[in-house]
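User: Teach me something about this protein's shape.
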Amino acid sequence: MADMPDTPHTPRSSPRRGTVLDAVGSGDTFRSAQEVHHSLRASGDKVGLSTVYRNLQALAAEGELDTLRNEEGELLYRRCSTRHHHHLVCRSCGRVVEITGPTVERWAERAADEHGFSDVAHTLELVGICADCSR
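Assistant: First, the predicted structure itself:
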């Protein structure tokens, strides 16, 4: 029997996925699928926008990318450190700083215990104006 083509729901590592991951980069801002697509097209890659979306979603599901919704509700992507962290995001320029919050971690554990929850995950994003944009 011939090999079946991979469907969008089949996790796999591929050169395309690596290309999309490289296009996201490891900068200090989150990027939209359209921004990633534009940078790939500008570099001569003929990738389609749906392929970029599909690969970004897969990379996020695999834990390779963090996601954040902007004020318009658009999902943004960023390659972050692998340790647990939160984000401090400038609403003006989009600059992101990874932060840790031991107090938040303890509070989340206490709240879960108090209400009988287990295997609890959380996300915390702080949004403000960075020092450069405040000037």
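Now, about its shape. Residues 87 and 125 are 5 Å apart (CA to CA). The chain has two domains: 1-80, 83-135. If you'd like, I can walk through any region in more detail.
User: That's plenty for now, thanks!
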